[in-house]
Amino acid sequence: MAAALMRLAVAVTCALMLASASQGLEVGYYKKTCPRVEHIVRAEVKKFVYKNAGIGAGLIRLLFHDCFVQGCDGSVLLDPTPANPQPEKLSPPNFPSLRGFEVIDAAKDAVEKACPGTVSCADIVAFAARDAAYFLSRFYLKIDMPAGRLDGRVSNASEALDNLPPPFFNVTELVDTFAAKGLDTEDMVVLSGAHTVGRAHCSSFVPDRLAGPSDIDAGFASALRRRCPADPAPGNDPTVNQDLVTPNAFDNQYYKDVLAHKVLFTSDAALLTAPETAKMVRDNAYIPGWWEDKFKAAFVKMSRVEVKTGKQGEIRKNCRVVNHGHPHGHY
Ligand code: HEM
Ligand SMILES: *[C@@H]1O[C@H](CO)[C@@H](O)[C@H](O)[C@H]1NC(C)=O
Ligand SMILES: *[C@@H]1O[C@H](CO)[C@@H](O)[C@H](O)[C@H]1NC(C)=O
């Protein structure tokens, strides 16, 4: 009788533990299985970002583009194969602009040496994005990044097109795109602040911001016209910095640029077109520390979007290809 009760108690405890493990991610998830992982990833990110700050911007965007398509599951990392010739990374929102893949490869190699088969590519993307924000903010943004994401096996270019917001979206379309991922209006405004670093290709803003009427600052527009062809196309599509004032600093300058009408995209300018989002822009611009605190929380929230656990995913050996074989046998 006592033994039976004991077995029951153990079974219930195990079920509860499994349930809580599958419900969410944990800070320090690899503490027992790969204690140095976060240190290893940070060291790789540091090497690349100190050589080229733009790669840091790329890594921050990489997490966003991973998470909005099939959830944060490393699906954006998968290369084309004969069986899957059009993965996410080849879709227009990602190709040829998305960058930082070589950092993920280097981090994965280093992590595999220390703890083979233990750390997912999806978690490496999240750690690397967090670390890029840390270095570009000059160590100001310290984010505890939870982990435990699994890698997905599906990557489809048309899903990237359907789920990632294009730069010509207006404020309602932006709110809806983020709401579809469980992110609210404030998350959307706060995460848009990532456009305080990095670059954009002329093709991302010339057609709707320079060709016709727009609210863009006249002096800023003429500077952009000097850099960009009137009709940018592959092979003739230069890039410009997103933030002219502090181009490589991960700070709240973006919101001052929005207020000054010195931002590149319709989606950036759109934040002033609704009273609710305009108020958030002003708070982020004017209240010291406001944006930084909000950004930390929203970034972690984004990193939890549609995360895969249990049989939905795997720990990829190489971040660019799904593992061979079908681990769960029902494919
Ligand atoms: C709100 C909707 C958003 C739209 C419409 C949008 C659109 C874009 C576009 C068109 C580019 C330029 C790509 C190019 O031409 O090279 C870009 C760059 C960038 N985006 Fe966004 N984005 C949005 C939200 C975000 C979010 C949520 C993040 C991250 C938290 C982010 C981070 C970045 C970064 C860091 C860059 C610069 C990348 C680099 O230099 O390689 N964006 N975005
Ligand atoms: C990708 O998604 C589209 C639209 O959902 C679908 O029609 C297409 O068959 C998918 N491609 C692959 C290779 O699964
Ligand atoms: C945004 O665009 C959609 C689709 O074109 C349109 O229905 C909506 O009224 C627009 N909203 C605003 C605030 O302009």
Automatic annotation (TrEMBL):
Plant heme peroxidase family profile domain location is: 24-323
Give the positions the UniProt entry annotates as the active site.
65
The Gene Ontology biological process annotation of the record reads: hydrogen peroxide catabolic process; response to oxidative stress
Domain of life of the source: Eukaryota
Task: Show the GO cellular component annotation of the record.
Answer: extracellular region
Give binding positions for Ca(2+) 1: 66, 69, 71, 73, 75, 88
Enumerate the residues binding heme b. Answer: 195
Instruction: Report the co-factor binding details.
Output: Binds 1 heme b (iron(II)-protoporphyrin IX) group per subunit. Binds 2 calcium ions per subunit.
Query: Which parts of the sequence bind Ca(2+) 2?
Result: 196, 243, 246, 251
SUPFAM superfamilies xref list: Heme-dependent peroxidases (SSF48113)
Per the record, what are the reactions this protein catalyses?
A: 2 a phenolic donor + H2O2 = 2 a phenolic radical donor + 2 H2O
Role summary: Removal of H(2)O(2), oxidation of toxic reductants, biosynthesis and degradation of lignin, suberization, auxin catabolism, response to environmental stresses such as wounding, pathogen attack and oxidative stress. These functions might be dependent on each isozyme/isoform in each plant tissue.
Record-given protein name: Peroxidase
This protein's species is Panicum miliaceum (Proso millet)
